[in-house]
Amino acid sequence: MIEVEKLTKDYGPIRALDGVSFEVRKGEIVGFLGPNGAGKTTCMKIITGFLSATSGTARIGGQDVVEHGVEVRRRVGYLPENAPLYPDMTTREYLSFVGALRGIPPDALPDRVRHVAETVGVADRLEQEIGTLSKGYRQRVGLAQAMIHDPEILILDEPTSGLDPNQIVEIRALIREIGRDRTVILSTHNLPEVTATCNRLIIIHRGRIAADGTPDQIQAVHGGGNAYLVEVLPAKDIRPEDVFRGLQYVEKVAALDRPDTDALAFRVEARGEADVRADLFQACARGGLTLVGLRRDRADLETIFQRITLQ
Ligand SMILES: Nc1ncnc2c1ncn2[C@@H]1O[C@H](COP(=O)(O)OP(=O)(O)OP(=O)(O)O)[C@@H](O)[C@H]1O
Ligand SMILES: [Mg+2]
Question: Phi first, then psi: what are they for 302, rounded to 5°?
Fold first, then answer.
């Protein structure tokens, strides 16, 4: 649905994007994550045809965003970082204006405006001038204008910024709902947002893609290998290390120093991708060991994000 190939963008001497390539399939909800200045907004502006790249290409549904700018804008809904709203228009006037621009027939427009206004929770603000709306309501109007023409693809630059916690939960649910049969790219600084909303994460750092995959895949690749933390109660005449070492997919066992618990703790590294949790559980049961703790030993996304972006 979206194909980005070797995108590079220079603003004078500043290289904001440096050879970014990725593809997004229909129905994916992709989260762009990266520190300030990483290049997220720049990348979104190029995909939506609002900014031209220095080199590289972006295609939407096979169409180059530069050559087919008009069609691309029909198919894409875009919430810019600083949505350019018209302060003197009422919400209804503004949404009708944008809807007409995007080709919605006049007789269908009032229903459509009401529908998107209800969807993002501004139905009670339709007659209010945008300039007098609170920040969160303006953000909702921005979202409404992105969805007014029912686009197949939504590109949302920090969609939940400025929203209250209740509205954040609602907008996340809405994005997941939209993402069922559409394609969404959103940027955020909020890690819980990614796990709550997205099925794929792209970490951008200094204009390059530093990680790309499901949160699970990224944790597997960047989170310190395939290892498990095992805790068992001490048992007379049994050395847990020996029990674990005998297992087929276990590569390495190290005892951990854990003064905070009476249990004995071990870090067990497994070969390749093998998930050895079931084997460990059964080995304990067979060997007469009481298992009191068993989990993957992986860095959480927050730690991984810091490791990648603080380099
Ligand atoms: N119009 C511009 N002129 C010059 N430099 C720019 C311009 N727009 C962006 N930049 C620079 O390009 C780099 C990437 O900026 P961009 O806005 O894409 O980052 P971002 O990842 O969206 O950051 P944020 O999380 O703060 O929104 C930054 O170094 C920024 O200063
Ligand atoms: Mg930005």
Answer: -60, -45
